[in-house]
Structure formats: structure tokens, C-alpha cells
Amino acid sequence: MQQRSPRRQVSRLPPERRIADIMTAAREIFTEKGYTEHVISEIAERAGVVEGTIYRFFANKNDLLQQVAEAWFQEMMDQSAAHYEAIRGEWNALHFVIFHTLEAIRRDPGLTRLILYELRPEPDHRDTRLYALHYEYTGRLCGIVREGMERGVFRPDADPDLVRDMAFGAIEMRTWSYLHHKSSFEPGPLAREITDMLYTGLLPAAAPAQRDETLRRLEAVTLRLETLAGETQA
Amino acid sequence: MQQRSPRRQVSRLPPERRIADIMTAAREIFTEKGYTEHVISEIAERAGVVEGTIYRFFANKNDLLQQVAEAWFQEMMDQSAAHYEAIRGEWNALHFVIFHTLEAIRRDPGLTRLILYELRPEPDHRDTRLYALHYEYTGRLCGIVREGMERGVFRPDADPDLVRDMAFGAIEMRTWSYLHHKSSFEPGPLAREITDMLYTGLLPAAAPAQRDETLRRLEAVTLRLETLAGETQA
Amino acid sequence: MQQRSPRRQVSRLPPERRIADIMTAAREIFTEKGYTEHVISEIAERAGVVEGTIYRFFANKNDLLQQVAEAWFQEMMDQSAAHYEAIRGEWNALHFVIFHTLEAIRRDPGLTRLILYELRPEPDHRDTRLYALHYEYTGRLCGIVREGMERGVFRPDADPDLVRDMAFGAIEMRTWSYLHHKSSFEPGPLAREITDMLYTGLLPAAAPAQRDETLRRLEAVTLRLETLAGETQA
Amino acid sequence: MQQRSPRRQVSRLPPERRIADIMTAAREIFTEKGYTEHVISEIAERAGVVEGTIYRFFANKNDLLQQVAEAWFQEMMDQSAAHYEAIRGEWNALHFVIFHTLEAIRRDPGLTRLILYELRPEPDHRDTRLYALHYEYTGRLCGIVREGMERGVFRPDADPDLVRDMAFGAIEMRTWSYLHHKSSFEPGPLAREITDMLYTGLLPAAAPAQRDETLRRLEAVTLRLETLAGETQA
DNA sequence: TATGAATGAGAGTTCATTCAT
DNA sequence: GATGAATGAACTCTCATTCAT
Known about the structure:
Oligomer: homotetramer
CATH class of the largest domain in chain A: Mainly Alpha
Number of strands of chain A: 0
Shape of chain A: elongated
Distance between the termini of chain A: 81 Å
Largest sheet of chain A: none
Largest interface: A-B, 56 and 57 residues
CATH superfamily of the largest domain in chain A: Tetracycline Repressor, domain 2
Number of helices of chain A: 10
Order of helices and strands of chain A: HHHHHHHHHH
Low-confidence stretches of chain A: 1-9
Structural class of chain A: mainly alpha
Number of domains of chain A: 2
CATH topology of the largest domain in chain A: Tetracycline Repressor, domain 2
């Protein structure tokens, strides 16, 4: 016989709070439970509400899943945005995106699984805000490559989309392994390896351009620092 | 004891034939239907049998899925084995594996979806014959890379597993796009692009090997200085 | 996600009421239907709910059966407890337990069948609350015998467990006959017969002890009554 | 996937032989498998035939079960018939029947389970040859009691049917315990105990027969008085 | 607004029995 | 006579969703 819950306390909370509670509960469940084992009633229980309440705030189960995933993704993008903008240098930029992604996966493999195995397979996934976010996020890599091409650091015939697919494809392969194997997953070395491989593949046959570019920037920085030093002294 | 009903119309086929019918029907359903919408009853109907018959030949639904997938995979491996053995040259070998995979996916996207989204996520997938086959198949790439390294064609510090993950990762990203987008999917150009990218990334540096390494360290220093400069200014 | 159909007509009852309805329905079905012909769908229909509702309150079919049987048993024990405590004399005590059991069976042969033929055969029956109840209930007989032995009314070499098995074994044989034969089943005479047989078998070869004991009690009561009569007069 | 048997050798056997094979296989299965876990296909396989063949010789599954049980029973009766006829003395006769039954159960608990839990519960069990055999077999006890009564060894007011029910009832209770508990089950001591208990209960009172009756009435009066005394006090 | 009892469609699976070969 | 592939009717159980209270 099922556990009958003791008569629950009706508490009227502001909607934002309720929504937050539900999403937190859902996220916890996804993180703990394996594939496809999340059940509305369990999420409700953990959030301290009943099933019906969830349906006041979310159109259906899938909507809840989407929103949880979106929030996670948004969080991840917001976290990295500031630093990402400030990065200089193609290698660093590539590395940062890749490393940051791996780190997020390591922290939240359950959510990753949710997205990879449950949300992405849905037939209308491309019409989803989650898809848009993901597209934007992974698009950063394309941007980096494109910029590198413009600046002559990368081969002019490189294909930014392919680079993105190779990077995130490789990440996914390793993630999948991590999810199943329960093997450890080291963002640091892995990010460096992937970045190196891509970077090397993107460099022009001989790469004097890059060296020059780096030297140029080095000079510029030096100049700025000197100026700064002068100002501070003054 | 069960009640029997009068109607009946049995057509008797040799088991191999029935099994083939069922597997064909299942394969068709997988190809047509979206994610998770394949149902035993539908497969049975299409195969011209009742549900119970399927259970004569397959232990359960999952067993049927596995076998269909295995057969497809085996077919794919057998087809390519002869030619694969005969190939000369790293680029050619890489390209052949990649191209052949893409071709198979283009022909049978439904089965690909089956494997990627339904069979692979299963918790015990690693103990599966399908996994073993897949591992062997993708391992070809590692073999090629390793051989290239031995022959001095590729950088001695390359990581064969990473190359495999990048190649099949990229393939998967495109496949996923193909599955949803219903966009076309051109094995020819795609295979060439992926191969080029990997191949280039694997070649030893034209200039002394440490050039890149030096450059990278220089780059890192620059970055630090730039950051410092930014912070100091602010 | 599931498709919903429009029709619906919900009647909302307090859980206790629903549970009671379901258990009543189940009990009716068990009483009417023969061996193993009770089906969840039928119980649901009779209780005026759909099958799924039953699973809100009972973990599975077996759980429902167990609970119905337990309730019946508990009822039976509660009913008899008060009187049982008050009984004096070995013969009376034996007779009461036996008679009461036969009466309960006569009233509810269907539930008896449920317990004997379906619940008891289960492999883990011994870990069941029903088993514990049954054990306690039939244990009353052992207690009576043991007490009789201590008081010297019964042979010192009697085996209480065997007495229990003979009593309830005989009851079961007759019950079985009743269940199939649809023959009548008269608790009164039967209880007397069984009790006599056991009682006789338990007496010491010659039984002066008992006579003495009874005489002693008779004297004691007489004395008390005399005293009482005196008090009342005063 | 199920094991497909290698193309079986069609061998034409005399019907008696086939029947014997099937019954032997069935008996083995019943002995090994737990409650309700015997499946026609398994019996067929063990007998070296296919399901269909069984239906040539047995009307249905139940018919097979019945015949196996009957054969076992018949065997048991035949085995004991000779000795049973020759026995002298009531105690010896009672003991022999009880002991022999316990021995048979100890040897074949699986078949006992089959009869107790599956065949006997069937609604039309009383119309069965198995029932008739069983009735005849257990009737031996009645005969012994009746004869003892005629010879004046047993009380003239004994009830032979009740003695039978107590004996076989007790046996069944112990059997049930044996089947579940996997506890050992010792026919020797147990038979002696049961026989003693019955025998003692059947002997005429050493003292005049009405002694017990008088005692009992005295006991009842005492009880009434005690109760009265208690109530009056309260 | 929150509740949570009730819904209901359907999924996978089992197995005694039949009958074309 | 023997085969064993095929049947098909049940059965238990799940769970997203609804809506009377």
C-alpha cells in the first residue's frame, strides 16, 4: 500500500516562489534519478506541493523539463558571459568555451542527460527556446573561428560549423562515456587536448601570421602598461 | 484455463522467414516513427502476426530492438570490411571510415536514432553485443591514427581516442541535425571536410615542433598581461 | 505524452470511504467467485472506480488481497477477544476457540478460500502480517493446552502444537468439504465433537486431579456466594 | 531471445511409452518447480516431445496434472495395500496409515503441493477420480476406527470421520509447514505422536464412561457460578 | 489558489491451446 | 503420428493529466 501523506498544510506562496520550488525539486530529481525515471508525483512531493499545482505553473511535464533545462543553460551562459567577452586570443577563447562546457557537465551530469537523451530527441526540439540557447552557446565557437579567420590566424578555408560540431561532438562522446561508465571526467586535460587538436587543425600550413599577431599584441600591452606606469607615478 | 475462440487462420512460415519479417517490420517502424513511438502491437501488425508471436522469437521488446540494431551494424561492418583492409594511405583510410558511416546513416536515419537515443542510453548498454560491435567499428579510426603515428606520418603526441571521438562526435552532431531538420545530409563533402580537419590536425608541424608550444605560452603571457592591463585601468 | 479523451465524471470521496468501497467490493468478489477468478478489473467495476484507482490505495493486487484477509482476521480476533479472556475451564476455552473459528468460516467461506488457497501458498507468506495474526490466533489453543498441563488437568506429556494442528487441521478438512460440497456446515455439533475428542485425548489416564481441582473451585465459589449473600443481607 | 531447439528427431514410440515419458517429465517438473510455475512447454521439452504431442494423449493441462497425481496416489496405495491388510491391532493400523502418508509426502513434497494447492481447489474436484482415490485412501482410517469400535477397543460414541479429519488435517498442517518452511519433517516421531493422541482420545474411559461427562457438567456449572460471582461483585 | 483523488488509455507480457504442415 | 509456429485473450500495472472540492 502506498504511503498516504499526512494532510498537507495549505500555504499560499507567491507564484515566483512556488515556481522556484518546483524547478529546484525537478532539478534535484533529474540529477539523482536515472534516465526516464522522473515522475511528476515525485517532483511534486519534493517541492512540497501536489501534482495539480505543478500544472498551474507549467503547461505539462515536458514544459517543466524544458524550463528546468533552459534555466540551467541560461545560468551557464550568464556565468561565463563576462569572462568570455574579455578573452583575448583564439586558443584561449576556444579553450574557455570547451572547458566551461565540460565543467558544467561535470557538475550536473543529470541535467546533461536530461537534455541529451530526453529533450533533444523530441520531434519539435528545433522550435524550442532551449534549442535557441544551445545554438547561441555553441555558436560562440563558430564566432571564435570566424574571427580567427578574419584575423588571418586560422586557415581561410576552415569551416566554423564543422569546428563546432567536432568540439561539441567530442565533448558529447566523452560525456556519454562519463554518464555510463561512471568513469571520472577531467575537464582540465580534456579541454586542453580538444583545444589543441582543433587549434592545430585550424592553423594555416605555416603560421607566421599568428606569431606576428601575438607579437603585435604583446607590444601593445607593453605599451599600455608603460603608459599606465607613467600615469600612476604622476 | 483459458477460453478459446473459434476464429483462426494460421499461415505457417519457416522461423527464419518469420524472424526476418518481424525484423523488417520493426526496422520499418523505427524508420518511420519518431522517438519512442514504436509499439510492439504495431510491429506485430505490420509483420502480419499477433503480438504473442513476436515473443516466440524475441525475449522481449528490448531484445528485438537490440537485434535489429545489431543486424544493421553487422551488415554495415561486413560491407566495408573488404575494402577497408585494402586501403592505402592515412587520409584515404580515415576518409573511408567516415564516409562509410555517413552513408549508412543517410540510408537509415531511423536506425541511427534508435541506437543513439534509445539503445545507447540504457544502463547496461556497455554489456551489449551492440556496444562491442560499435566499439570495434569506431576503433578502426584509432587504429589508423596509431599506424600513422608509427609510420611518422602523424604527430607522435596525437591521441587516437580523441581523434575517434572528434570524428564520430562530429558525425553525430550532423546526424542529429539531419534527423530533426530533415535537412539533406551529404556524405561526400562532409566526409572530406571532417577528414581534412582531422588530418591537418594530426600532421607534424612543418616548422620545429616546439614552435606552437612556444607560441602558446607567449599567447598565455599576453593574455595575462592584457587582463592585468584591463584590471589596472579599471 | 499521453492523449487525453474528453469524457470524465469524477465523484470525489474521502480516501477512507474509497478504500472501504474497494475492500468491500473485493470481499464480495472473493465470496462469489471461485478460485483465482477474481480480477482487478472486476473489483474495480464493482467498487465503481477504474483499475488505476485501486493502485492509488493498494500497491498491487496481492496487497489488496492481503489487506482484505487481514481485516477479516482482525475483525474475528477482536470480536472474540473479550469473551476469550473471560473464559474459565479448559474444555470451555478449547470449545470457544474452535466454535468461533467454525462460525467465522461459515459466515465467510469465500475469504477462507482466499486465505487457504491463494494467500497461504505464496512463497513469502511467513513474512506476512496475516501469517502473524493467524499464528497468534491459532496459538490460543496452544496456550490453553499449556495452561491445562500446568494446572495438571492435562497429561504432562501432551504436545500443544500437535493439538493445535489437529484442531485446525480438522477444521480445515471440514471447511474444504464445505467449500466444495456446498454442504451445510454446523459449527455447533462440530465444535463439540472436535473439542471432546481433543479433550479426551489430553486427559491423564485417570484424572483425579481434575476432579479435585473442579471440586476445589466449586467450594471456593460456594464460599464466596455465601459471603456475598451475607453481605447483601447486611 | 529464446533458445531454438535443434531440429528434433522424429521418433515414433508406442503410445504407452510416450505417455510414460510425459508423465515422468511432468512429475519431475512438479517436484522441482514451485507453486504454479509449471508450464506445458517445459514439460514437453523435458519429455522430449513438443507441446502438441502432449495434447494427443491428454485432453488438456489439467487432465495431465490429474493423471500424474492419480498415478502417484495409486502407487502409494498399491505399495501399502499388502502390508496394510496384514496389520493387527488398532494402534498399529492407525500408525501405519499415518506414517505411510507422511513418508510419501516427505518423498514427494512437490506432488503434495500440486494436489493440495492446485487440484483440490478446482471447483469440480469432487467428481474426480483423484478425489475418489483420496477418499478411499483416507477412508482406511475410518475403517480402522469402526473396527475398533466394533471390537470394543474404542469408545462406542467415537466418530470415525472426525478421526480421519483430525489425522489428515494434522498431517496437512505439518505438510504445509514443511513445504514453506523447508523445515525438516520427521515422519517417525510425528506419526507416533499423532497416533498416540488419537488412540488415547478413542479409548474408552478407564473409569465409568460418564465420569468425564459428569465432570464436564460440573465444570460448566462451576464456570457459570464463577461468572455469576464475578458479575455480582462488580 | 491549492488540493489530490480519480481517470483511462495502453503498454508489455504470458501461456494454454490449435492446426497446417 | 508428430510437429511447433501461431494464436489471442487476458492480465497487471503505470502515470500524465484533469477537475470537483
